From TrEMBL, chain A:
InterPro entries: CPA3_Na-H_Antiporter_D (IPR050586), MAPEG-like_dom_sf (IPR023352), ND/Mrp_TM (IPR001750). It is a multi-pass membrane protein. Residues 129-424 form the NADH:quinone oxidoreductase/Mrp antiporter transmembrane domain. It is found in: Cell membrane; Membrane. Belongs to the CPA3 antiporters (TC 2.A.63) subunit D family. SUPFAM superfamilies: MAPEG domain-like. The chain crosses the membrane at residues 6-25, 37-56, 79-100, 112-139, 165-186, 207-233, 245-265, 277-295, 315-338, 378-401, 413-438, 459-480. The lineage of its organism: Bacteria, Pseudomonadati, Pseudomonadota, Gammaproteobacteria, Pseudomonadales. This is Multicomponent Na+:H+ antiporter subunit D. Its main location: membrane. Keywords: Cell membrane, Membrane, Transmembrane, Transmembrane helix. It comes from Marinobacter pelagius.
UniProtKB/TrEMBL annotation, chain B:
It is a multi-pass membrane protein. It is found in: Cell membrane; Membrane. Residues 127-422 form the NADH:quinone oxidoreductase/Mrp antiporter transmembrane domain. One of its GO terms (molecular function) is lyase activity. Belongs to the CPA3 antiporters (TC 2.A.63) subunit D family. It holds the Pfam family Proton_antipo_M. It comes from Marinobacter pelagius. The chain crosses the membrane at residues 6-23, 30-50, 76-99, 108-126, 132-150, 162-184, 204-222, 242-261, 267-288, 300-318, 338-361, 373-393, 413-434, 454-472. One of its GO terms (cellular component) is plasma membrane. Its main location: membrane. Keywords: Cell membrane, Lyase, Membrane, Transmembrane, Transmembrane helix. The keyword Nucleotide-binding does not apply. This is Formate hydrogenlyase subunit 3/Multisubunit Na+/H+ antiporter, MnhD subunit.
């Protein structure tokens, strides 16, 4: 076994080790804990960077061993895995920085950061899982490790949200397990493989395969917040802002979407899934979710709740992209995995800054916030324009690529969905921007707090500025080979031979 | 060599029972430490020998079956011997520091503990129906004594109720044994099995099997005969509850499983197999539902045992008249469930004991806000809970996965409802405890941290139960070892 084979294990171990160390540290050792957190995050980013470089050159890293009779534990770094791993490793670093600032002076930090690290370890496992079974293992670990984060504040509202969250996700997990067990029952242990396993299946497998597909998507759809399985997401927004960022941008919803990508691409195969007529149904649900989420976002007066419904809508772009079943459309969907992440994480960071610095939770309290917090507001504005799809920001790249893909696939109605959704995005983001920049401040801020020499604590200010910068660069440099889009095109070239 | 080891496993506990009977609590504790060390080493040695050479059957004292005491050990038996050593050692060490040495009657913990251990080893290693009965009685009587050790009138009531159930179970079992002896003139399990294979004269003995299974199911607290278990396991001192839930109920279940696997094919029926599975399924739901409704922490854990025992009974329908591969999967699932439940439940009771000690109350709601103090025991409790929910990568998950596969392979899809629904129900009652611990607006401001040695023991057990899922393959490969010198002697 070479060290290369162990790279995925190391990447996983960095955050697991960090979790164990943090849990054993006493509550008062704040600086040491922050150091452990940051070292682990940087180390992980380096390891993932190393793997990305290797995978780019065509290498594959992996390790496997038998776990239960008939089932292997497989970790494998391929191009698709690296997309998600890179996303989670880089945003983990920023979210950690942000969380350190956000939770300053609050209790239970040891517990928070311990589970936070476990959560990121699960995300890494989800990215690197080499078969459905290993994927499921980390998928459930993610559920368990995010629960303490959601209920972190311990208020009745938080506990209720936690209960909703856990009921939805564990039930989804049980459904997913059912699907995986059925699939295993008639075809054995299936490693993820480009092109899938059912390219030349016998006709009598068609009916059970269709059934299993529906079950798998229903299970994964809970975390991916597909309507009508999205109910937990708006409720869970009572969690602290860094947790929301994690739930919405990096870990939970992405785990669901990523699982759907794996199932469609590497278990069924895009072509087989299309031939079975499964993608049509999925596309219809995704399109409905996109419109529904945006429409619900319009009527929310709480800022984080509006963002939550926007997530419901945006995650389904990824799924809709897959259903376009052509190289361009698929690239549009996959790249949104990263783009939605970077935009949504920026928005939640900013919402957290408004809440922590000025005590603002409702949208009508935002009047004049731009003057008081220019840095945060610029980042927020960029991300909002990105979501709407203004060129040259990241969101535009997604929508443009998906639009071209839809035309190529002959699914013109998708263009209509994209346009309606963009209009709705504009309808719920522009009034917010209007209040931030063009309204005069009417009342005193609900709960203002002076924090350092900038508009807010530097720990809170830098992360959204960096992610906002990234979402501009992802758009401007989209044609470079190391942009998200470039990497996705590499994936598509390797995964899909259409 | 093997014989000496097996004899050591049986006689050391008996000798230590007598020794500790003569000593007080504190001296008994020191004596017990030595005994635990010996037992663990001997169990490990036996395990190593079986891994190297395979299993053995041995007539003790030169008497051949059907008269003498016949000992046998195979991969499954030695796995359970080792499991017993592990859990008993953990509970014994924990009890030494947990029980109040100044209470007069606590000195009887040690002899009862050792009698229990002896009885368990007799059950794992015995090969004839009467010896198994002796082991079973030894277990039941010492278990009842241990429950009564709680001291209060409530504990005595629970113990008495337990005693009634145990005696009724033994009686049914003994009747069945007598019927078998009358029919075949043999008490050896393998002897009866081979006699049954030769001719079909044993038609009348189907009733005997049903009787024995009834008695054993009563002792295992299978729904709806479970009513004695929650009060007994709930009221006992925590290390005792750990022993009872982790090991005692498994003793009677092990005999039932062996009877079924050796005699089930000729004597059982589809209806009987499905009935046992159905009762198991109902146990999963009823036990889970009741666990969700209990106010006291240890009652939650006790009802969870009722539910978890239910899974074990899926063995019966999944091995009756099914393909060899599916039957093997079901047996593997059963073994993993026994091991992981034993480890997780012992961890849970021990950590529940620590938590109760810390907050000074046995109610679930008294845990409000304790996660604030980062109690180590809450973490152990949580980890054990993950295994009970059957989430990966725990041993409980591995067992559930294999049960799922066996159900699908045999086309008995209705067990999927039990397996998946039961998992969700256990998540519900485990999360109820977590939820209480996260409440922030409670006004507790102090928390008594138990000694580290008390906290580390459940943590080790919980981690083992977690790791079992990752290590299931090697554990199962030991379990699959049969006799080196062929079936029977």
């Amino acid at each position: 076994m070479t060290t290369g084979a162990l790279l995925p294990v190391f990447a996983l171990m960095t955050s697991l080790t960090a979790a164990v160390i943090i849990f054993t540290l006493p509550e008062q050792k704040h600086q040491l804990r922050t150091a452990v957190n940051l070292i682990a995050a940087v180390l992980k980013l380096l390891l993932v960077g190393l793997m990305i470089w290797g995978v780019f050159q065509g290498r594959e890293y992996g390790i496997s061993f038998p776990m239960i009779p008939g089932v292997e534990f497989v970790l494998r770094a391929d191009a698709l895995a690296m997309l998600f791993a890179g996303l989670s490793a880089s945003w983990w670093l920023l979210t950690t920085v942000y969380a350190v600032g956000y939770l300053e002076d609050s209790p239970n930090r040891s517990r928070f950061f311990g589970f936070f690290s476990l959560c990121v370890a699960s995300t890494m496992g989800i990215a690197l899982a080499g078969n459905l079974f290993t994927f499921f293992l980390f998928y459930e670990m993610l559920t368990l490790s995010t629960y303490p984060l959601v209920v972190h504040r311990g208020t009745q509202q938080a506990l209720r949200a936690g209960r909703t969250y856990i009921i939805y996700t564990l039930t989804g997990g049980a459904v997913l397990l059912f699907g995986i067990a059925m699939l295993h029952g008639f075809s054995g242990d299936l490693p993820f493989r480009p092109g899938g396993h059912f390219a030349d299946m016998s006709p009598d497998l068609q009916a059970p395969l269709t059934l299993v597909f529906v079950i798998l998507i229903a299970g994964l759809g809970v975390k991916a917040a597909i309507v009508p399985l999205h109910g937990w997401l708006p409720t869970a927004m009572v969690a602290p802002a860094p947790v929301s960022a994690l739930l919405h941008a990096v870990a939970v919803v992405k785990a669901g979407a990523f699982g759907i990508v794996r199932v469609v691409f590497e278990i069924y195969g895009l072509e087989t899934a299309n031939a079975l007529g499964l993608l049509w149904g999925l596309a219809a649900i995704a399109a409905f979710t996109i419109i529904y989420g945006s429409a619900r976002a319009l009527s929310q007066s709480d800022l984080k709740r509006r963002l939550a419904f926007s997530t419901v809508s945006q995650v389904s772009y990824i799924i809709l992209g897959l259903c376009l079943a052509g190289p361009v459309g698929v690239a549009g969907g996959l790249v949104h995995l990263v783009h939605q992440g970077v935009m949504k994480i920026t928005l939640f960071f900013c919402a957290g800054n408004y809440a922590e610095t000025l005590g603002i939770h409702r949208i009508d309290e935002l009047d004049g916030a731009g003057r008081r917090m220019p840095g945060t507001s610029v980042a927020f504005t960029l991300a909002a324009f990105g979501m709407i799809g203004t060129p040259p920001l990241a969101g535009f790249i997604t929508k443009w690529t998906m639009g071209t893909g839809a035309l190529a696939a002959g699914m013109d109605w998708v263009i209509a969905v994209l346009v309606i959704s963009s209009l709705l995005n504009a309808a719920y983001f522009l009034p917010v921007l209007n209040r931030i920049w063009f309204r005069e401040q009417k009342n005193a801020w609900p709960e203002e707090r002076q924090w350092g020499r900038f508009e807010t604590s530097a720990w809170l200010l830098w992360p959204p500025l960096i992610t906002a910068g990234f979402l501009v660069l992802a758009g401007l440099l989209a044609s470079a080979s190391f942009s998200p889009l470039g990497w996705v095109e590499l994936i598509v070239a390797r995964e899909v031979d259409l | 060599m093997t014989l000496w080891l097996m004899a050591g496993l049986l006689f050391t506990p008996l000798a230590w029972a007598v020794l500790t009977l003569l000593a007080g609590f504190r001296r008994g504790r020191v004596v017990t430490w030595l005994g635990i060390a010996i037992q663990v080493l001997v169990s490990l040695a036996l395990w190593a020998v079986v891994v190297r050479d395979g299993g053995f059957q041995y007539p003790l004292g030169g008497w051949q079956a059907p008269l003498g005491i016949e000992l046998r050990v195979d991969g499954l038996a030695v796995t359970f011997v080792l499991l017993t050593a592990l859990v008993a050692a953990a509970s014994g060490l924990h009890a030494g520091f947990y029980l109040d040495p100044d209470k007069q009657w606590h000195r009887y913990f040690w002899p009862l503990f050792w009698f229990l251990w002896a009885g368990l080893n007799v059950v794992w290693l015995g090969n004839d129906l009467f010896n198994l009965y002796v082991g079973l009685e030894l277990i039941s009587l010492s278990a009842v004594g241990l429950v009564a050790l709680g001291g209060q009138s409530e504990a005595l009531r629970a113990a008495l109720r337990y005693l009634m159930a145990a005696l009724l179970g033994s009686l049914a079992y003994l009747l069945g044994v007598a019927l078998f002896y009358g029919e075949f003139g043999s008490l050896s399990l393998s002897g009866i099995a081979s006699a049954l294979g030769q001719d079909s004269s044993g038609d009348g003995t189907g009733f005997a099997l049903v009787l024995m299974l009834f008695g054993l199911a009563l002792k295992t607290a299978l729904f709806p005969m479970h009513r004695w278990l929650p009060p007994a396991h709930g009221i006992a001192r925590s290390p005792v509850s750990a022993l009872l839930s982790a090991l005692v109920v498994k003793g009677s279940f092990y005999i039932a499983a062996r009877l079924w696997l050796e005699l089930g094919a000729p004597l059982g029926s589809l209806a009987l197999a499905q009935l046992l599975g159905l009762l198991g399924g109902m146990a999963v739901f009823w036990g889970g539902w009741q666990a969700l409704r209990q106010r006291k922490l240890k009652q939650v854990v006790a009802y969870s045992s009722v539910a978890q025992i239910g899974y074990l009974f899926l063995l019966f329908p999944l091995t009756w008249n099914t393909t060899e591969a599916a039957a093997l999967q079901a047996q593997q699932a059963m073994t993993l469930q026994v091991i992981s439940h034993a480890l997780a439940k012992a961890a849970m009771f021990l950590s529940a004991g620590n938590l109760i000690m810390s907050v000074g109350s046995n109610r679930v709601n008294a845990l409000a806000g304790v996660s604030h103090f980062l109690p180590f025991s809450l973490f152990s409790f949580g980890l054990a809970g993950v295994s009970l929910m059957g989430l990966p990568p725990t041993g409980g998950f591995a067992a559930k996965w294999l049960f799922l596969q066996a159900s699908l392979a045999t086309g008995q899809w209705w067990w999927l409802v039990v397996l998946l629904g039961g998992g969700l129900l256990s998540a519900a009652y485990v999360f109820r405890v977590y939820r209480a611990s996260f409440v922030e607006d409670s006004n507790i401001d102090h928390f008594f941290h138990p000694a580290r040695r008390l906290e580390i023991i459940p943590m080790i057990l919980a981690l083992l139960s977690l790791g079992l899922g990752l290590m299931a393959e090697p554990v199962l490969s030991v379990m699959a070892l049969t006799f080196a010198n062929g079936e029977g002697t």
